[in-house]
Structure formats: C-alpha cells, structure tokens
Amino acid sequence: MKRRAGRFILATNELKETCLNSDEILIKYKEQQAPERSFAFLKDPLFFADSIFLKSPQRVETMGMLMGLCLLVYSLGQRELRRRLRESKTGLKNQLGKLTKTPTLRWIFQCFQGVHLLFLSGVEQIVNLTEERQFILTFFPPSSQKYYILSG
Residue 70, SS3? Predict the structure, then answer.
C-alpha cells in the first residue's frame, strides 16, 4: 500500500519546538484544499471580479474585505446545507442527476436561475418553482424560503 501511494515531500516553515510530525503536516496540507476551492470560486469569471476597476488602495482593500465576507457567507451556507442533508440522511441531485450528500452552494444557485418573481394584477407569483426546487428549499431556513413565498 505504501509503495502504491508513492512518496510525499513534506516541508514546513514552522520552526518552533512544537513542530508538527509528518502525519500532522500531511493532514494540514490536505485541509488547505477547501480554502483553495473557495478562492477559485472568487476567481471564476462568473463572479465578475475581473470586471471591477478600483482606483485607490483603500477601495482595493474594501473590495478584498467584501469578497472575503461573501466567501464566508457562502461557506457557512454550504456547510449548513450539507449539515441538514446529513441530519435528514438524504441528498440532492448533482449536475449529472446523481444523488450527492455534498452539493455545492454554487450548484444550488444555478438550479434556481430559472425561478422568477412575477407580478400579475398586483399578485405575486413564482414562476418555475418545481417540486424538486421546493424540496431543495426545505433544507434552507424560513428566512430563505420567504423569498419563494413558501413561508411568512
């Protein structure tokens, strides 16, 4: 099994006496993948961050702070969704139509792109809110459901 796994070069710049052993370094390294995926989300062209031009360092700092805050909210929402799926011992369909217990919040946002709020004769109506989308909404709090006229 060791031969099949290959070799890993583990290095750290942690020079304190409480230095990590090789197993701990590997665990820390693997934990970096979640933040890396999150920052990839911010760099995605669909996020439109590349179309923003800022003229002062203070505005760049502010935009960085706002993007970090957006990433925090996104991560918390995704974690909460996955926690609720775990508790209910179910999953949601992914892009391939297969059940997954770890959907991304980005995928959920894409699922709701075709849902629209329509006003006809002063009456609010939701268009394209399918049963599957309503099922997805059951894993979100009432504060989210109210936008789809599912709760008061």
Answer: helix
Helix, strand, coil abundance in the chain, percent, nearest 5: 55, 10, 35
Closest listed residue to residue 68, CA positions, set 115, 96, 46, 35: 35
Read off the tokens for 50. 């590349």
- Between these two residues, 10 and 74, which has the higher pLDDT value? 74
Contact 128, 115 (CB under 8 A): yes
**pLDDT tens, 62-74?**
888 888 888 888 8
The answer as to whether 75 is a domain residue is yes
For residue 40, being part of any structural domain is answered with: yes
Q: What is the residue range of 72's domain? A: 20-90
Any bridge partners for residue 119, and if so which? 124
